[in-house]
Every structure is written in structure tokens, then in C-alpha cells.
Write a structure and sequence with these properties.
The chain has a single domain, classed as 5'-nuclease (Rossmann fold), CATH 3.40.50.1010. Helices cover about 60% and strands about 15% of the residues. The chain contains seven helices and five strands; from the N terminus they run E-H-H-E-H-H-E-H-H-E-E-H. The longest helix has 15 residues. It is globular and about 35 Å long.
Length: about 140
């Protein structure tokens, strides 16, 4: 299964945000073991760097987080075609629409996010971390 990780799931794992960290860490391990293929959009990298740095007040920790993601995940391009498709999707949140467009353009199976409701109307499967975890263990 090829899955795009939304920023909130990445931050849950990288910052050990409770009560979400366990499911996010499980999914990171599933990527590391090859049980699933993990993808992130190119724009997610800059968001993670900024948010981890702000939360931890450490540029070093932010770079370590980015390095881990670059090692673990495949990167989906964000180009003019992705952005134009995002505008046409009709989702209320443009950032979520960009994630959907990246997943579609890359031919992914699903998006994993804690904000499933924000992806209502997306033409791709959208799963919570718990739902994806349950699929993997069943």
C-alpha cells in the first residue's frame, strides 16, 4: 500500500504528541519495515522543519526531523499541475487539496491524516492513523 502522510501524523511521531504518538510511531515502523510505502508532499518538508523548530526551539532538532523524513519517505512533487488540480478539487482547505493532488498525481492508494473530515469529498481514500493501523494488523 502506497500512502501519503499528512503533516499532523508526521508531527505526532516526530514530536511524540500524545495521545496520538503511538499510532503515528506504528505507521513509521510500518514504513521502515516495508509494510507500506510512505510518501509526503514536497511542501510538507518545509512545514515540518518550521513547526518542529518552533516547538522544540532547536534548529538542530528540526534538521534531524527533516533528515529522518528524507530517509524514510518518498517525496511527491508540488508543481504547477498539482496546484492547478488542487484549485479544481473543491475542497475547503487548499493545503489539504494540495495533499490530495499530490497523492493522485503520484498514483497513491490513500492519505493518512488525523483530519479526515477536512478531506471530505476527496477522490481518494482518506484514513485516520488508527484505521490504517487496523488494516495493517488485520
Amino acid at each position: 500500500m502506497r500512502v501519503l502522510f499528512d503533516t499532523n501524523v508526521l508531527l505526532d511521531a516526530l514530536l511524540t504528541r500524545e495521545p496520538f504518538a503511538a499510532d503515528a510511531a506504528f505507521l513509521f515502523l510500518a514504513v521502515e519495515s516495508g509494510q507500506i510505502e510512505g510518501f509526503i508532499s514536497a511542501t510538507t518538508i518545509t512545514d515540518v522543519h518550521y513547526l518542529v523548530g518552533r516547538q522544540t526551539k532547536s534548529a538542530e532538532i528540526a534538521i534531524t526531523a527533516v533528515t529522518r523524513l528524507l530517509t524514510l519517505m518518498e517525496i511527491c512533487a508540488v508543481d504547477r499541475g498539482v496546484l492547478e488540480q488542487s484549485l479544481l478539487l473543491g475542497l475547503t482547505d487548499f493545503e489539504d487539496a494540495v495533499q490530495v493532488s499530490c497523492a493522485i498525481q503520484t498514483g497513491l492508494d490513500a492519505i493518512v491524516t488525523r483530519d479526515v473530515a477536512g478531506f471530505t469529498g476527496a477522490p481518494i481514500s482518506v484514513l485516520s492513523p488508527g484505521e490504517l493501523k487496523n488494516r495493517l494488523i488485520s
